[in-house]
Structures are given as C-alpha cells and as structure tokens.
Design a protein that fits this description.
about 220 residues, Outer membrane protein W, Porin, eight-stranded antiparallel β-barrel
Length: about 220
C-alpha cells in the first residue's frame, strides 16, 4: 500500500510540474496594416490602415529558455487609398478626392518558437496563417467644380464585396519580442511580412500582398 501511495504521489507531482509549463490567456492589440501591389514592372503602396486584433494564446515551455506558442486571433486588416482628382471636360473644371478602404476580415493562427533571453524577455520567430473570411472595398468620391458661373459639388459612396476575387490563405512569417511581468501581464510587438498573393486570378505578374505590425497586451494564466 505504501508503495502504491508513493507511486501515486510521484505521478501527481509530475502532472503538477508539467501543468506549470503550460500558460494560456487572452490577448488584444493594435495593428498597422499595409497593402502593396505590383505588376508590369510597377509597384504601388497603399496608405497604412490602423485596426485591431483580439484573441487567445497558449504557450508551452520546454525549459527556462525555449518555448512554443500558438494563437487564434481575429483582425480586419487591409489598406487605404486617397487620390486627388483634377480635370477639365467641355469647359467644366472638376476637382476633388477619391478614397477607397480595403477591408479583409481575417482569422489569424500564429505559431512561433520562442527564446527567453531572461525570465521576462522573450524573442519569437514564426508563421502567421491567415484565413480571409470577408473582403470588401468601400469607395467614396467628393467632386466640385464650376461651369458658366455656377458652382456644384457631388459626393458618392459604394461598397463592393470582392471575396470571390481574393485568395483565402494569407501567409505571413513574423518576428517579434515579448515582455512578461511577474503577475502574468505581458506586452508584445511583431512584424508580419505578407508573402501570399491575395489576387485569386492575377493577370500576368500582378500581386497584392498584406504586411502588418502588431502591438499587443495580454495575460497568462498557469504555473510560474
């Protein structure tokens, strides 16, 4: 009986120690998203788009230095365009601006290997597997002009669903750093380099890629 109790005690202690290697919790933060289009030897960078992300993470530490981490996040990434318009047609001069907002609703699954330089500071390298669940382009235009002494102005806006024209998978390798306080609160920052062509049926060598920065905060539950 004593031998059985000893074995059971050792087993329970082993489970407790292993449980301390797992940590999990929520995280959320700010994303700065950038679209880059290329084709026919030319490139175009969209204006950066400020957005957010929210989700959860789980971490397993092999030892004091090395760990792996997986996450599930949601983020509406994309990019923006704004162009000035000026032209004259049939004696009428028209000026104004045209804007477009590209929105890709994305479920992100980042998986990373982490190295703890200290007990609190870790550096990570991994792959963010993005799944595009929705894709829309919101466009607007504000035009004004004058003709025969009369002035006029006009504003229009449209929303187009472009999900059928966008690839579902958006892969982005990333590198980042994380700092964790003793109470489990942590802060992290990453740069995700978009490598997937989001255009489903490109003409020639057309590409559209989405890279983004992430700055976040979260809390880790689990053993110390």
């Amino acid at each position: 009986m004593k031998k059985l109790l000893l074995i059971a005690s050792v087993a329970v202690m082993g489970v407790a120690v292993n449980a301390q290697e797992f940590k999990f919790g929520p995280k959320a933060g700010y994303s700065l998203s950038m679209l880059n289009a290329e084709g026919d030897g030319e490139s175009y960078k969209f204006d950066s788009k400020s957005t957010f992300y929210v989700g959860a993470m789980v971490e397993y530490k092999f030892n004091d230095r090395f760990a792996v981490q997986g996450e599930v996040l949601y983020s509406p990434i994309g990019g923006k365009q704004e162009e000035s318009v000026s032209y004259t047609e049939m004696g009428v001069t028209v000026t104004g601006t045209q804007k477009s907002d590209w929105k890709f609703g994305t479920v992100q699954i980042p998986v990373s290997a982490k190295y703890y330089a200290t007990e609190s500071l870790a550096f990570g390298l991994g792959l963010n597997v993005g799944i595009v669940t929705s894709a829309k382009v919101e466009a607007s235009a504000t035009l004004s002009g004058s003709a025969m002494g009369e002035s006029f102005s006009e504003s229009t806006s449209t929303t187009e669903d472009v999900k059928d024209d966008v690839n579902t998978l958006n892969l982005a390798p990333f590198i980042g750093a994380e700092y964790t306080l003793e109470n489990g609160l942590f802060f992290d920052a990453r740069y995700n380099l978009g490598v997937s062509n989001l255009i489903k049926n490109p003409e020639g060598n057309e590409t559209l890629k989405n890279s983004f920065f992430q700055i976040g905060i979260g809390f880790k539950f689990g053993g110390n």
